[in-house]
Amino acid sequence: MSSPLQLLSDIISTNIHALESAYAKAGLAPPNLNDPYSPSPLASDVVVAHAAKLIIAAASQLIATVQSPLEVIQEFSAGMHQTAAIGFAEEFNLADVLLEGGQGGLHIDQIGALAGTNGATAGRILRYLATRHIFTEVKPNTYSNNRISSVLRKEKTLKEIQEDPSTKYEGARSAAFVNHFATEAFKSTSFVTDFIKDPMGFKAPFNMAVRDSKDVFAWYQLPENRWRGARFSVAMHGIGEMRFPPELHVKAFDWNSLAPGSVVADVGGNIGSVTLQLAKEFSHLNFVVMDLEHAIKEAKPYWTENYPEALAEQRVKLQVHSFLTPMPLKASIYFLRAVIHDWPEADCIKILSHIRVAAGPDSKLILFELIVPLACEDPTTALIANHDPALKAPEPLLPNFGIAGGWPTWVDLQMLALFDSRERTIQEYIALGDAAGWKLDYVRQQSLGAFVFSPK
């Protein structure tokens, strides 16, 4: 019988062969760490994505198995240096600076001069990152971009960035993501333990970090923080494009099963971008986009530009409403997309309870949220409507594919740090629904899960 180490090695070698075969069939070279990144035509290929997932899962588990436990703990404990280092590289636009040197790279003295910082310090940080495969040290104290660091480059030139730093994140979603995490998110995380011990009247670790009672979104509205809000929007839009394809919401539920004229309420829907997808696809339904006044104000020109006939025919209505207050609308479907994860438990129960009071006996509630995967066998698998046993992680991988499938676990900790809120497992969604008068019927597992509830 093969050892766990051999099984992990076999998973890696088998799927490297599958990956290289797929690239060869497409007439493409497989990924190379030393090449600048550019989106591959195979980026959405199911075979390639699954092979890569298995390689990552097995390689990370193999490292964890053979590396000294003390070294693993030390590396994790010093993990804050990763965030600080990548944050420094983004703040001083090092990926953009290194474009000046091409493949030959730039010496740290040149890097410091172009970036407007101390070259020796930049060199220390670049060596730390290059040791972890971000940037390449091509010769002593000389660095260039590689496949990973190249995604930090911005659309604007280095000269444009330095002349007007306030606009540098326009179209630069990876850089915007890094800056968000390396600033307020990083500071908030350092207060998690203190907050859990004694909140001291603060709503979340974030509030402890910035010494302000406003939530993150209200804090972004302060004049001095509006650039952060704009940067956050770029980062989140980038995540949405990468992780959540437009057809996700269309495929999440059998919308054709609803009778003509049925009302679908997009609760906390912002300008209604998800409803736009649904309204164009399912012309027999009526929709109401519900959110606060500032969002509905922005929604009007958005719909006028993108689907004016839906407003003119009153198939789509825009309604000012706070989901923390009683729900005024009776609808066949109420759906909330990435709303619940932003709110503490008591507020989540309040939001869903308000909807439950308004709902009819045949109404449905759909929550579009991440599914936190267990690191062991999940007894709630039977509730996953589209579960495919063929995609189960092979032995001896963790059932959730470890680091290759566990990204919702870091999003969960991000929610804790910023909002004292959470992502949830399926069982935790069952409990949340139960507390607000809803019974979970089933889950459709996608990049963003669709939790479908009925009234209890």
Please summarize what this structure is.
The protein is α/β, with parallel strands linked by helices and about 450 residues long. It is about 45% helix and about 10% strand. The protein contains 20 helices and ten strands.
Strand % is 5-15%
Total E-strand runs: 10
Helix content: 40-55%
Q: What's the SSE pattern?
A: HHHHHEHHEEHHHHHHHEHEHHEEHEHHEE
Tally of individual helices: 20
Biggest sheet: strands, sense, closure? 7 strands, mixed
InterPro entries: COMT-like (IPR016461), COMT_C (IPR001077), SAM-dependent_MTases_sf (IPR029063), WH-like_DNA-bd_sf (IPR036388), WH_DNA-bd_sf (IPR036390)
Keywords: Methyltransferase, S-adenosyl-L-methionine, Transferase
Pfam families: Methyltransf_2
Protein name: O-methyltransferase C-terminal domain-containing protein
